[in-house]
Design brief:
Blueprint lengths: L1 E6 L3 H11 L5 E7 L2 H11 L3 E4 L8 H11 L4 E6 L4 H10 L3 E4 L4 H12 L4 E2 L20 H11 L4 H8 L3 H15 L3 H11 L5
Helix pairs in contact: 2-3, 3-4, 4-9, 6-8, 6-9, 7-8
Protein name: Response regulator transcription factor
Keywords: DNA-binding, Phosphoprotein
InterPro entries: CheY-like_superfamily, NreC/VraR/RcsB-like_REC, Sig_transdc_resp-reg_C-effctor, Sig_transdc_resp-reg_receiver, Tscrpt_reg_LuxR_C, WalR-like
Length: about 200
């Protein structure tokens, strides 16, 4: 039996998904939440196999909630359920630990397919999402400076340019300049690819 928790600030949408899943013999909805804080409470109490969560919710957004629950329950599979298909939103959910990303205008059959896919250890992305492909690079072969590596590490930790500037005691414009140089050196296209890359980079300092 696959246990599911659903987090969505529109109760009618939760009700619709629950009604659909009631006809599945191998799936049981064990909890529901209308905000991120309540989602964490549900996960701690019920320990579901899969969490289906909206990104934008009151009190705590889905990205932050995912980051917290994956830290506490790494085996829990998270599927983002959102109206947004921007690269940055997808990258942020991936970085937080989500295994899937589907859109709210998708069919309920897509929701079901996503649940089964992540339970098999696979990732699942809505067919309408055009994910940006990028090559994984070994930075040993790329001349990033020590400062640039520090900034990549902090980007991977979710820090903003201003937060990085404060931590490194440099100006925000300096951080922004470093970010542009890093993108150019790594041949990455924009913030979303840099975020994905920074989450996979291993550091020896």
């Amino acid at each position: 039996m696959i246990t599911i928790a659903i987090a969505e600030d529109h109760q009618s949408l939760i009700d619709g998904i629950k009604l659909f899943l009631e006809y599945e013999d191998d799936i049981k909805v064990v909890g529901e939440a209308n905000d991120g804080e309540r989602l964490l409470e549900i996960v701690r109490l019920k320990k579901p196999d899969v969490v289906l969560t909206d990104i934008r919710m009151p009190k705590m957004d889905g990205i932050t909630a995912t980051r917290h629950l994956k830290k506490e329950f790494p085996s829990c599979k998270v599927i983002a359920f959102s109206m947004f298909e921007q690269d940055e939103a997808i990258a942020q959910m991936e970085a937080a630990g989500a295994s899937g990303y589907i859109l709210k205008n998708s069919s309920l059959k897509t929701v079901l397919a996503a649940i089964h896919a992540v339970m098999k250890g696979e990732t699942f992305f809505d067919s309408s999402i055009k994910k940006t492909d990028y090559r994984k690079k070994d930075t040993d072969d790329i001349p990033l400076s020590k400062r640039e590596l520090e900034i990549v590490k902090l980007i991977g930790e979710g820090k903003t340019s201003q937060e990085i500037a404060d931590l490194l005691f440099i100006g925000k414009t300096t951080v922004d300049t470093h970010r542009k140089n890093i993108l150019k050196k790594l041949s990455l296209q924009g913030k979303s690819e840099l975020l994905r890359y920074s989450m996979e980079k291993k550091y020896d300092f």
